[in-house]
């Protein structure tokens, strides 16, 4: 399973919103540093998806106003 980074999220609230949307769209994802919010809510989280879902995930991120977090 090849994962590619599509976004780096700065805050847990933003990550939670995108997680909900990706789940609703049935897009598998991995969010690094997810549990680090206990120590600091501003620790960046890397959002990764399977290569085959990358294009759709990027579209969703742009459509929902989180385009500033895209890594491309």
Compact summary:
This protein is an alpha+beta fold. 32% of the residues lie in helices and 22% in strands.
Describe the structure.
The structure is a single chain. The protein has 72 residues and is of the alpha+beta class. It has one domain. It is built from two helices and three strands, in the order βαββα. It has a three-stranded antiparallel sheet with strand order 1-3-2, with helices on one face. The relative contact order is 0.31. The model has no long low-confidence stretch (mean pLDDT 87).
Labels describing this entry:
single chain, 72 residues, alpha+beta, three-stranded antiparallel β-sheet, 2 helices, 22% strand, globular
Number of individual domains: 1
Q: Helix fraction?
A: 25-40%
Shape: globular
| Tally of strands | 3
Low-confidence stretches: none
Distance between the termini: 21 Å
State the secondary-structure class.
Answer: alpha+beta
**Rg, Cα atoms, Å:** 11 Å
What percent strand? 15-25%
Going across the biggest sheet, name each strand in turn: 1-3-2
Give a quick account of the main beta sheet: strands, pairing sense, barrel closure: 3 strands, antiparallel
Which sequence of SSEs, written as H and E, runs from N to C?
EHEEH
Write down the overall mean pLDDT: 87
Count of DSSP-assigned helices: 2
């Amino acid at each position: 399973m090849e994962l590619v980074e599509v976004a780096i999220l700065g805050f847990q609230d933003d990550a939670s919103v995108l997680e909900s949307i990706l789940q609703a769209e049935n897009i598998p994802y991995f969010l690094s540093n997810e549990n680090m919010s206990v120590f600091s809510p501003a620790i960046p989280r890397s959002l990764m998806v399977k290569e085959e879902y990358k294009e759709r995930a990027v579209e969703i991120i742009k459509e929902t106003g989180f385009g500033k977090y895209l890594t491309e």
